[in-house]
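Researcher: I'm comparing several assemblies side by side, and this is the next one on my list. It has 772 residues spread over six chains. Same procedure as the others: predict the full complex and return the structure.
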Amino acid sequence: MNKRSGIKSKKRILDAAMKVFAEYGYAKANMRVIAKASDISIGGLYLYFKNKEDLYLTLMKSRMGDFADKTMESVKDINDPAEALGIFIAMSLNYAKKHKEIILVQGREHGFAFGLEMKRKFFKKQRGLVENIIRQGIQSGVFKKVNVQETARIIFSVIRGFILSIVVEPDSLFSPEECSNLILNGLIRRNKQ
Amino acid sequence: MNKRSGIKSKKRILDAAMKVFAEYGYAKANMRVIAKASDISIGGLYLYFKNKEDLYLTLMKSRMGDFADKTMESVKDINDPAEALGIFIAMSLNYAKKHKEIILVQGREHGFAFGLEMKRKFFKKQRGLVENIIRQGIQSGVFKKVNVQETARIIFSVIRGFILSIVVEPDSLFSPEECSNLILNGLIRRNKQ
Amino acid sequence: MNKRSGIKSKKRILDAAMKVFAEYGYAKANMRVIAKASDISIGGLYLYFKNKEDLYLTLMKSRMGDFADKTMESVKDINDPAEALGIFIAMSLNYAKKHKEIILVQGREHGFAFGLEMKRKFFKKQRGLVENIIRQGIQSGVFKKVNVQETARIIFSVIRGFILSIVVEPDSLFSPEECSNLILNGLIRRNKQ
Amino acid sequence: MNKRSGIKSKKRILDAAMKVFAEYGYAKANMRVIAKASDISIGGLYLYFKNKEDLYLTLMKSRMGDFADKTMESVKDINDPAEALGIFIAMSLNYAKKHKEIILVQGREHGFAFGLEMKRKFFKKQRGLVENIIRQGIQSGVFKKVNVQETARIIFSVIRGFILSIVVEPDSLFSPEECSNLILNGLIRRNKQ
DNA sequence: TATGAATGAGGGTTCATTCAT
DNA sequence: CATGAATGAACCCTCATTCAT
């Protein structure tokens, strides 16, 4: 079981850790299990990560980076703000469903702040993306003159809630289409339509 | 420090436990601290609760019951579905902000199912309330003919996301008004308005 | 094995720890063994001491305090400086032999400073005692006009070396009498005697 | 970084190990650090030394050998026993100060006996040297008729204590001159001096 | 010779839970 | 009802040592 490339081992650990953290959460996940799942020794874990927290944070950072890149990419060439928003929402929900693991949950370990800084940065960035879309929508006259920040927060909150639902009520999810439809058009019936 | 009514002691423990769980989360909260905060002995804790999990679950159940009762009550006499929905959202967000503690987070301890059954029941009930409102709105012609279940889930997701935000990004919350406005009217500008 | 007085337990731990530290040294001594020797559980250890270091330091402090008190006491009423010095030396060597355990060894754990502050205080105090004796000896004309500090350091060094010898070469110790004789009278033969 | 003569590598390791052991002590020193300080791989260490203990013992042996040789050499041609003793003391203290590292401390690892045999041999040899000087001093009438062994032990103890002081109280050392003066002439004032 | 990734026993510490008082 | 000393399993992490390359 010796002599594996360091990079491969690191990746194997991260993948395994993802599964374990996803199943048990940070506090209940333990290094022994992660080691076993990684098919590496406990000591081996510490060859690649300073400690449990480092492992977790590295994991988070990488997954969030992936996610941020993808959403950013998928939206940047869309001109229609309604479409862009729809795509952003769909991207987010689908990605979350696919990687139910962790992602945004687990904000409470270690007396609140724990990788929170990193998460906040990520959120801010993502929210910035939504804000831009909304701003463009308002400028182009497609969207109403809403409070951009507040609205972005609300949209973000739907996504965040969705992610939490994946964990808590995986059978009570909703479709991205229905979601963007509601956000774009609202619940109230328009006159004569 | 002895001879206290059992009921009072139990209440004192629950109140203290709420604060402690809220600050540390389930896994990191420990019985000694809860005991101290309750001004009771460690052994005393086990007089009223079978174990830590029982304490936590009892706590959850009671708070959720409180919450469910309140929302139920506040909405039942409102006839206008738009207003009812607005009130429900406002109630939920404000209650969540006031009792940031726990509530919905912490769905992941103990390998997934952990008081989840109880939580799901609560969610279902709450969602049922929203569904009713929506159904009435559709029937009365105020709301569009949306998919009731899906829409209720989405609305619920906003609230759930808001609650998570309280923990993760307490400075990025949004106002209930803005929220119900978005949900009711949507983002897209109506013709000639 | 339950319900023992806290004070008794603490004392039992300290006594056991003394033996264990004495046999293995700080680094090699482990809490499991100390627990067993104390006839207490591992967790019990941490009821009385914050951690291994705390246990060790508490131990040191108490033993040094004992020792300092005794030497101080035994010397304070002696007027003849030569006799006082002899008694101090005898006291020190005998005490050390009786409590071979630890005492002065182990100055190197944790990258040097480790309870060093405490030890230094103790040494200073002890050396101060010797300095006083020497000073009085000089004043009364019994001793030569030596450098008080330096001489005290040398005398102290003999004692310290003796203690180390207990550990390293327990069969190569010397008698207190011979020692004070050498220090008082020196090696060189006096004229016409 | 390869193809180095074995002898050179071994020496490099020993030099590095000396520094590391000196800084951390035996127990806290670890092979990785020694490897790094030696600019050799961990595996490389085990090419030259069976294990950590072997490395340490080899180190000790070589340094003690050095020291023994030097003192032996410096004293052998001196005829005046007082001068010889002074030189021996000065040599010892100065050498100790210069190579504060290890030397005599750390007699306690591994449950007492740990390189102790070797150390004892060294001590015996050194003490033999002192005994010879004293014996010659007595024979030539310069020294009193003291117990040779005891006196040698006492003198050795001063040196040993000095070494320990280097570690514990490096700012409380004394000068070799003062030391040999005290040992040679004693503290008590001679008649009509 | 030389490397360094990998191993795993073992150490310090925490904490839910029990039970004699 | 109430106490809190005591328990011990289980956690995170270290490090001497091995071995495929």
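Model: For your comparison table: Chain A has eight helices and no strands.
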